[in-house]
Amino acid sequence: MTDDNIDEPVHVMGISGGKDSAALAVYMKNRVPDMHYFFCDTGDELPETYEYLTLLETYLGKPIARLNPDRPFSHYLKIYDNYLPSPRMRWCTAQLKLKPFEAWVETTFGDRPIKSYVAIRADEDRDGYLSHKPNITAVYPFKEDGLVKDDMFRVLDEAGVGVPKYYEWRTRSGCYFCFFQRKAEWVGLKERHPDLYEKAKAFEKSETDPVTGETKKYTWSQSESLSELEQPERVAQIKAAHEKAMAREAASKKPARLLEMFEQALDEDDDTLPCLMCNL
Length: 280
Ligand code: SF4
Fold this sequence. Notes:
alpha/beta; five-stranded parallel beta sheet; about 45% helix; binds iron/sulfur cluster
């Protein structure tokens, strides 16, 4: 590290692989030249995310530190008794993203004051899953400067960086098996990355209690397993519902970007927002 005055704050920014944190990195490039970029890499991210990070590194002209968890997802899954993470039991973010971030900060910068730049936009009203370490303070440049969703696309377009390729079929960054995915996105994963779909499927289990005869299901989605979801009739049903939702959006709104329509259609009944470490 190059910052010599130990009382001066260190500037760090997490890149999630999503459009907002990418836009913030571009936006801050010349405003805070001594920024330290990092990416919490669970090892289970989408190939498109890794590609996008390389593109961003070229634009920023500096590396994005890859922070890995001490143990892989499968290790923690055993610790949590095979309970796959879910919006109500989101153990994955703490173990695979937040812990490596705090360890990196401590090892690299000690107790120095840290300014952590967060890409929450001015048109968003959400908190995030942030570190509570006393030397880390969150900074929100988009909120302070009033930048909203359209500005993200503008900033990325103007820089020639664009949005990550997974936006063709999925709205959020994060692990390929992320439980925040919508049904249409699981179908997208199966079509774009059948090998990753199979890996996600392999984490699902069904166990019958020999005494009570009760069957316990461990699935990514509460309503159905990935084996059920991939049946051709079910896939056709999901795609039809998705297209209908998009058409409804298109009819009810002024012409919108495809990506926005996709997001709106998918977010229709979304009452749970994903975590900051993973999805900005
Ligand atoms: S992307 Fe999803 S599955 Fe991965 S750590 Fe974040 S919340 Fe968990």
